[in-house]
Amino acid sequence: VYTVKLVNRYGNCVDSVSRTITIGPKPLVDFSSVNSASCKAPFTVDFTNQTPNSTAWFWNFGDGTTSTEKNPRHTYNQLGQYDITLTATFGGGCQNMVTKPVFVKVVEPVIGVSNLPAGGCIPYTFTPKESVKAVDGVASWLWDFGDGSTSTQRNPSHVYTTQGNFDIKLRIVTTTGCVKDTVFKDGVKTGAPITVDFSADKFQVCASQAVQFTDLSTGADEWLWDFGDGNSSDLRNPSHIFGDTGYVTVTLTAFNNRCATAVVKTRYIHVDPPVARFAYTVDCFNKRLVSFRDSSIIDPALGNVSYSWTFGNGLGATLSAAALAAVIAFPLGLLLCLLRISDVKLIR
Length: 348
Known about the structure:
mainly beta; 4 domains; 32 strands; Immunoglobulin-like; 53% strand; flat; five-stranded mixed sheet
């Protein structure tokens, strides 16, 4: 609220007048629509102005077109998501505006099934987890499980009793009549358990030696090896170098059309040390000064251990077990550093 006073002086005469002026907040602007989402174009939207006491209107429909009607109708000819802005004018010339982001959506439905591909051993129960996105909502569902069975439930469950590869089909119809079909080729595979076995070419190895594994399973089409040291492979006949010492348990899981059967061989291979390992620290005040620390896995019972460092710059050192740290001043550049350790019969 403001008070404005005018004082008039004419010779010895003085007169004045005061008026109170009230400036209120900008009036609120709003609009709505009963149909703002569709799965296809062209799509016509009826907009309703909900701004009281407004006298003029300027609409921006977000697709490069505008209108000055109070309650306009607009047709969108392209798929997309559109921000709508209404600027309203009131008595006295005041204006205000409102923008509603992504108010109109003209978007085709998207179909996904999050747990495909799937499969297992018969009898296998499959419960699809749909992830359908439809801006106008879904009115109906039709699942085809590929073996002659169908369902109109949103989240059905189906049991496969025979081995095979099955295409999963899903058809949805949206509330505004759009039909969307999706096919997941070989979405479900089912099989029967098989006999799983494997062999290795060595059962006691040095940590640097590769062990060749051979699959002896019958009827397998996929493989997953767990070597017991944190490493794995999906090859049929992998070769593996173990990164730790001691006894390791090896597991092979073989698949027949996604039906998994596993065999576990406990303490199957013994891995002898040494394993060469080291860490390093760069000096914060002299970046070319690097400290090396040995962290190798050794077994003194196997004999005396010697250490040979190669620092990639022509420098090297052969150190005893009592002196396993080295501080090296490096030249600029990228260098390869190598630690080589050995006992009476092993070299890493």
